[in-house]
Amino acid sequence: MPPLPRISVSVKAAVMRADHVLLLSYDDAAGFHYNLPGGKAREGECLRDAVCRKVTEETGLRVRARRLLFVVEYVPEVWQGEFGDVQKAQFNFLADPLDDAAPRMPHPPDPDHVGFEWVPVTALASKYLLPRVAPHLLDALGQDRSDCLVDRW
Length: 153
What we know:
mainly beta; 2 helices
């Protein structure tokens, strides 16, 4: 039997304020692009806790994770290794800020992270997000469905 694959688990948040979503801007080897705030979950950490922790680390904002919007998977063999050789699962949540604080750069800063932008939901389709999730994000934000994450056995 072949060994089980190593899978990276990450979380991202669509932090909403009014009809705007917070995007982080980056300028790196992939060029200028946007991403939702978030990052890797720790072993043994609940996904909701991980997304709140990562948003705070990257933006200084305290948030509440409301619901799972969608899951993105990356299988290197399917994408010819475009984003590395590690299989990935990314859980994307809708989140609300807990106060009116402004986002701030993390310490120490990520050298590729260049800023923040509150983008109107209506303008998301024109933004280059990596991974390429803008259409899925728009679709998920447009649906008022019950929470699709069951986090209790």
